Every structure is written in C-alpha cells, then in structure tokens.
Amino acid sequence: MKEDISAVDFLDIINIVKLQYGYDFAGYVQASLKRRILRFMSRTNISTVFDLKHRLINDSELFTHMVQYITVNVTEMFRDPRFYRTLREEVLPKLAAYPNIKIWHAGCSTGEEVFSMAILLQEAGLLSRTKLYASDLNPMNLEKAATGIIPLDNMKDYTYNYIQSGGLADFSNYYTARYDNVLIKKELRKQINFFQHNLVTDTVFNEFQLICCRNVFIYFNRELQNHVLQLFYDSLSSRGYLAMGIRESMRFANIHKQYETVHAQEKIYRRKS
Amino acid sequence: MKGAYDIITIGGSAGSLSVLTMLLDALPENMRMPVVIVLHRLRNVESEMGRLLSATKKIREPEDKEPVKDHHFYLAPQNYHLMIEADKTFMLDYSELVNYSRPAIDMTFSSVAEVYGHRALCILLSGANKDGAEGLCEVIAAGGTGIAQDPQTATFEAMPQSAIDLCRDVKILTIEEIIKFIFFET
Ligand SMILES: C[S@@+](CC[C@H](N)C(=O)[O-])C[C@H]1O[C@@H](n2cnc3c(N)ncnc32)[C@H](O)[C@@H]1O
Predict the structure, then answer these.
(1) Which pLDDT belongs to residue B185?
(2) Which of A66, A83, A136 for a ligand 1 pocket mutation test, highest count of atoms within 8 Å of Cβ?
C-alpha cells in the first residue's frame, strides 16, 4: 500500500526547502504536493522521509532535481481551443488599441502557451509591437522553453487544437521539423523573454494589458490564490485582462470584487478600474 | 446501516455508461450526500458524456476549490484529475496521466480514502484497464466500503476484476444489488 508523509514531516520538508533554498511551498494544496513528493521519493529510491530530509539538508543537487518533480509541468499548445478563439475574437481586438502591448504568461512551463499566443498575435498583425514576458518558478522548464523545441509527436494534437481555435493558416508554417522534434520559428519567439519569477515570493516588475496564468492557481490554497490575484491586480494596467485556466475560478477568492468578468466560461476577467 | 456514509464515488470506463445511467436513474434526486462520478473520456473532444448523464440527473462539473456539497451530483471534468482536499473542497490537477488516464479514478478514490476514511463508499464499474483498483483498495484499507461491479455482468471485466484481485473485502455486486445497497445501506 501507499506510504504516507505525516503532517509534521510535511511541514519539516516545507521548512527545509524554504530556509535552505528560498522556495516557499507552504501555500500549496497539500494533497497534490504530498503525492508529488512521494512520487519523487520513489523515482529516486529514497525510501524514508527521514532520508529525504537528511539529503535535502546536505545535497543541493537533490533539491534541484526535486523541483523538477514537484511542480506539475504538463502543458499544451492551444490547449482549450475555445479559450484561444475567445482571445482572438474578443480580447486581441481590444489590445490592438495600444501602441505597445505587454503580455505576461505567469507559470509558462515549457513555453507552449506563450508560443500559441505569439501565433495569435502574428495572425492579428500585432506581434511586432508586443512584448511577451514568460515566467516560471522552475528553471529547467525555462531552459527548455528558451530552446523553442517541442516533440514532434505532439504536433498532431496541437494542429487539431489550432484549427479548433479558429486558426486558418497551415500550422506547419510555424515550425520546422528536425528528426523527432520541431523548432518553433525564430520570428515567433523573438518577442518572448523567458525568466524566473516565483509568484509566491517575487513582486510586481512591470505593467501589462493581459496576464495569462492558467492551471497554476489549482496548486495554490485559497490564501495564496488571493495573494497572487493581488499581485496580478497590481501588475495590470487600468482595465487590463487576466486569464485563468478554464476550470479555475475567481468566485472562491475574496479579491474577486476588484475584477469584473469578461467571459465566465473561458475564465477571462478584467481589472475594474 | 443508514447514515453510514458521507460520500459516494463512482468510477467507470469502457462499457460503464449504460450501467451508470441505470444506477443514476434509480437514485433519488435529493441524495443525503454528494455523489462524485469519474469516467474516462476522450481528451480535448467535446464529449457527449456530460450531456447524456445530465439527462437523468442534474450533474455538474466542479471547478477548482468548489465546496463538495450534499445532495449534489458531480462529474470529473475532462483532462483534469479530480481530488478532494481535507477541507472538503474539490481540487483539480493537470498532472501527468495515471494509468493512461486523466481523469484517473485512482487519484479520486485515493483522495476520498484519505479525507473520508470509513465514511466513504466507492464503486468501480466496467472498464478495460486497471484504473481504480488501487484506489478502491485504499478506500477499503482506510475503513471505507469498496464495491466492484460483478465482472460477469460487466461489458469489460478488467477493471472490476483487477480490484477484486488486488485486495480482499471488495464487495462484488451486480448493478441491481448496487442500487439496493445504496438504498438500504446509505
Ligand atoms: C500545469 S503548468 C501550466 C502551464 C501552462 N500555463 C498551461 O496552462 O498549459 C504549471 C506551471 O506553474 C509553475 N509554477 C508553480 N508554482 C509556481 C510559482 N509559485 N511561481 C511561478 N510558477 C509556478 C510550474 O513550474 C509549472 O510550470
């Protein structure tokens, strides 16, 4: 049967990671974080929580490795095609009014989401005057994202998603295939800046007309969700847009009154003033 | 015993839709506890499943952090694992496939075992893989009740059969017996 981590051990692990490495996971949803720590232990043959704590204190490389396991890095291009269709039809035409557009993808993982956005912007003729900021807490994800390389196997799904999102071009124009991978065209990537930013501990660094933070909130407890929603509020220009994952909701956060709903189903909100 | 459970969780895969519909048809609209359904569905394809099921009962796909409420029927949304947190709210998880599936029945059962312990009733229906078996056994180990659809009556027997093979004390019931069990024992 499945081994478990006691509440005390769990807090110990969180504290070691925070004190020694500066990453604060205290506001993460426990069920999934515990599961991922256990998964990391079994993959790396660490059999007891005692061993894990001991090694975390003495071996910083182990921690680097652990981060890769405990953050959920799964992502897709044009995931939830209807969301991208709504961006195309309702949000981008509004952004077009700004001479310079700034968009932030918080929790961008390996880049698939921001590449999709770049394609939308290109098709709307807005890419050259847009700056895309793509951040994540996990440095390995960012390294991968910066290469612009995606496994070829995924392209079939992504092409399907792209068409569903209302894309009319030949999707294969946006990449070049090399053996088992594809390389997203340089011209799509040149406006993107990948950098490390931890939503829990780092602060406002710029002002945006649109922030996409999708499928990151699900890993945060309500208190942390509020904290991050405040950070986004402070990072949005007046009437700026915020997009969350389609199963995420602002309804359960206290701060929701400061945002108005633009599209309830696609979870697109807007700063009220 | 009446009042013995605080939640009913049902997992199904290939061949489960018809028995599930039968089961839902038989249940009253106003159950005393929440009923949470996890079905394997095709990824990224707008599925008919939700609509088919809602024809029999008012079923909603929960959002992240939504409280788990009595009297409600829930269906795990496509492409996310569905878990329940200690404070009885839903948590959606977009992590790797488990048993080639997302949602994975194991993920839901396992969290239900942890949060509800002996007050959980979990039911595993027809299916062609072994998802749900481990979770069902965790539910039983935590003192809850685990039912597997009698493999002889299942369109695909692999799923209930793997639960039966994996741990003792799984109740093996036909769909009619499952309905009776819910009526008289919950
Ligand atoms: C499931 S992925 C979502 C990727 C993409 N946004 C999407 O929806 O497809 C979650 C990402 O959030 C990142 N993340 C988790 N906690 C974070 C934090 N505190 N600050 C920034 N990024 C974080 C993870 O490293 C991971 O890359």
Answers:
(1) 86
(2) A136
Of B63, B111, B138, the CB nearest to A247: B63
Torsion of CA A41, A47, A51, A55, to 10 degrees: -40
On whether the CB atoms of residues A210 and A103 are closer than 8 A, the answer is yes
3-state secondary structure of A227: helix
> What is the C-alpha to C-alpha distance for residues B144 and B158, in angstroms, rounded to an integer?
22
Q: Where are the domains of chain A?
A: 7-70, 81-271
Interface test with A, best of B43, B64, B98, B111 (most A CBs within 10 A): B64
The H or E element spanning position A94 is helix A92-95
For chain B, the 3-state helix, strand and coil shares in percent, each to the nearest 5, are 35, 20, 45
Whether residue A267 has its Cβ less than 6 Å from ligand 1:
no
Give chain B's domain count.
Answer: 1
Give the span between the Cα atoms of B85 and A218, in whole angstroms: 12
pTM score over 0.90 = yes
ipTM of the complex: 0.87
Fold observed for domain A81-271: Rossmann fold (3.40.50)
